[in-house]
Amino acid sequence: MTQKMANFMVGLFGGIAGSMLGKYLIIFILSMVPILELRGGLIAASLLGLPMWQSFFLCFIGNILPIPFILWLINPIFRRMRNWKHLGKVVVWCENKANSKKEKIENLKYLGLFLFVGIPVPGTGAWMGCLIAALLDMDKKKSFLAAILGVVLAGIIMLIFSYGVLGRII
């Protein structure tokens, strides 16, 4: 699914993909988007023929950029959004989604957060992991470190997949 979404996003930004700067901009933006995150960014980088280590660094930065905002600001934002009819529904949906996955983190705390973010399977990643950590009121600094280390692990796994396996197929 991530590969299909990455292909779609590359096609969507097709006009700017003609320049090297445009290609780097695409993977940076993809890495900040929930669901796709670094995983989608690295798949797109491989499809665009970008160098592996530069792509990893740019996707890593793009993926960790939203983490502090999620950890420190999501609870106050959700409190304000609850007062609005339609936005309150979005908050309930996000909280239900996070609560359905929280036992994966709740039992192991920071190791659980690291593994949740680091093992690239659908429905996991830095966005969801940090949302769960914020809702569980986990220590923000420790959660930030666990999420960053998880993004590194996910990046290594995705480099092997994107530039190794996927690179050989394409």
Itemize the secondary structure elements and their pairings.
Elements: H1 2-12, H2 20-32, H3 37-47, H4 52-64, H5 67-81, H6 85-101, H7 103-106, H8 109-118, H9 126-135, H10 140-169
Helix pairs in contact: 1-3, 2-3, 2-4, 3-4, 3-10, 4-10, 5-9, 5-10, 6-9, 8-9, 8-10, 9-10
**How many discrete structural domains?**
2
Separate helix tally: 10
Distance between the termini: 17 Å
Structural class: mainly alpha
Radius of gyration: 16 Å
Mean pLDDT: 88
Major sheet characteristics: none
Low-confidence stretches: none
- Please provide the count of β strands: 0
Share of residues in strands: under 5%
Helicity level: over 70%
Gross geometry: globular
SSE succession? HHHHHHHHHH
Summarize, please.
This protein has 170 residues and is mostly helical. The chain has helices at residues 2-12, 20-32, 37-47, 52-64, 67-81, 85-101, 103-106, 109-118, 126-135, 140-169.
Question: Key terms for this structure?
Answer:
10 helices; 170 residues; globular; 2 domains; 0% strand; mainly alpha
Please characterize this protein's 3D structure.
With 170 residues, the chain is mostly helical. It folds into two domains: 2-63 and 156-169, no CATH class; 67-152, no CATH class. Helices cover 79% and strands 0% of the residues. It contains ten helices and no strands. The protein has helices at 2-12, 20-32, 37-47, 52-64, 67-81, 85-101, 103-106, 109-118, 126-135, 140-169. Helix 3 packs antiparallel against helix 4, helix 5 packs across helix 9 (126-135) and helix 9 packs antiparallel against helix 10 (140-169). The longest helix is centred in the last third of the chain and has 30 residues, at 140-169. 38% of the residues are buried. The mean pLDDT is 88.
